Amino acid sequence: MFQALTRSFFLTSLLAIPTMAQETSTTPTLSEQLAEKAAGFAKQAPADRLATFAKGISRVRDSGIEKSAKQVGDDAVDGTLQGWTGNSVTLSKLWSEGPVVLMWYRGGWCPYCNLQLRAMQQSLDKIEDAGAKLIVLTPELPERAKETAEASGISIVALHDKDLALAKLYGIVFELPDVIAPMYQSRLPKYNGNDAMELPLSATYVINSSGKITYAFLDADYKKRAEPSDVIAAVKAAVK
């Protein structure tokens, strides 16, 4: 059953996976890649724009969302979602067979999301070898999610969290603060198919076969993401 699901939702990787020696010596961690991306943006962007984004992050953090969202020890929320292939996935059916990694990304317009997607693609074999299934969720319309995958050269199929319905049940959705909402007014409707000025935290959860959350990465700063090695370690702990 696991192999069938894997074939259904994850195609053979389009990326060249480095050898262990190459990965150790040449591949930076996801955190390093994200920091480099953020530093590059900081060098080019006007100071007032940087200040606006920083203020937006602070307001999201001050809302308390990182603490009010689903946490380790909570029951996971079930849901049935569809990918761009038309296949539907019921989460509880997957985690009843073994750990599940749930990862939300904001959209293909987000460079930090694309870095995370590539890093998780490169770690997909290790995640599956550890005994888990990776489920990627996004508010992007299915056709947009497919474009994101093709542009990033990944084969992970993202499931459509329509109107962020599941993310809201996990408590990870926030309304864009007024200071930054205007920057997204022409972008989100095009990608998500609605006018809501809402985004999810770039959250990552590990859910064990009992439907309990055993790992949760929640950060109001969109430039911070779960490190694949930490996710793999959490999966291994979940199967013990």
Please characterize this protein's 3D structure:
By secondary structure, the chain is of the alpha+beta class. The protein has one domain (29-238): 3-Layer(aba) Sandwich (Glutaredoxin). Helix content is 44%, strand content 15%. The strands form two sheets. Strands 2-1-5-4-3-8-9 form a seven-stranded mixed sheet. Strands 6-7 form a two-stranded antiparallel ribbon. It holds the Pfam family AhpC-TSA.
Notable features of this structure?
240 residues, alpha+beta, Glutaredoxin, 7-stranded mixed sheet, two-stranded antiparallel ribbon, 9 strands, disordered N terminus, oxidoreductase
Alpha carbon gyration radius? 17 Å
Strand portion: 15-25%
Content-based structural category: alpha+beta
* Secondary-structure arrangement, i.e. CATH architecture: 3-Layer(aba) Sandwich
Tally of strands: 9
The CATH superfamily turns out to be Glutaredoxin
Largest sheet: 7 strands, mixed
- Spatial strand arrangement across the major sheet: 2-1-5-4-3-8-9
**Helix content bin:** 40-55%
Give the SSE string.
Answer: HHHHHEEHEHHEHEHEHEEEH
Overall geometry: globular
